[in-house]
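Exam revision sheet. Question 4 asks you to relate a sequence to its structure. Input first:
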Amino acid sequence: MNSKPRFGTGAIVTIVLCLLAISGIVFAFLQNASPYVTVAQAKATSGDNLHLAGDILKETLKTDLAKGQISFDIRDQDGDLVKVVYYGPPPANMGEATKVVAIGGMHEDGAFHSKKMLIKCPSKYEGDKGYETAQ
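Answer key, structure tokens:
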């Protein structure tokens, strides 16, 4: 009796297709992964899905309802500053926000243009450490 397993052409094609599908999924995931960056890294990196975290400089906060945008400066963990331009309706608690994670990318004008923000507001509750999402 011959106990050697035999693979037919269909099995080999199925295995190759599965490997290609897995490779495609991994590639798509890596392309859409959005790393946290500093101001210096954002200026050196292309792409529009970067997460830039920092402290909002309240005195620079400007809202332009006609254009549907908010602009402000943030200071990152290294102390570097950059102007952020956010497109969308202002979050309800934007005036109280102290920290922000802007999601977007650097623009030719030298500002970080954001399509989404996560804002952090001080809370009267010590245990509340969540971010609110603005889109």
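Marking note for examiners. The mean pLDDT is 82.
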